[in-house]
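Researcher: I need the complex structure. Ligand is heme C. Inputs:
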Amino acid sequence: MKKKVVIAAFSMVIAATFAFAASGKSKFTSKGCTACHHPSKDQLAMGLGSSLKMISVKYKGDKAGLVAFLQGKGKPRVAPQGYPIMRGQLARLSGMGKSDLNAIADFILNR
Ligand code: HEC
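Model: Output:
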């Protein structure tokens, strides 16, 4: 009996985590971020962005740092030479609440 409750609670946590990441993905897409950021392909040489994989490596274990970057408060860690392009893109996120930015950060970090 107790085991069933534990399993049920566990699957709810998994479902919630999945929904969270999924909504981060839809926000990332709807804000046009996918135009420059491919999940695994580095497009910096084409004047576009670094891959989400590269970003997730640099921000591993530092979701707060990633959210700060999205709020325009952080310093670029991935490809500072491309930052002038990215800086202008942060305007797409203005007006987004902390929970939305957290969802986007979760999506990026869970690549
Ligand atoms: C016009 C192309 C373009 C678009 C659109 C774009 N980016 Fe970027 N992004 C870049 C470039 C170029 C870099 C590399 C410079 C850098 O590392 O800051 C970058 C870097 C980043 C980084 C790494 C920051 C770091 O510390 O170096 C994050 C996170 C990021 N983008 C998130 C986003 C999000 C979220 C969106 C959608 C709102 C977005 N980008 C839209 C071009 C773009």
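Model: Summary of the prediction. The mean pLDDT is 90.
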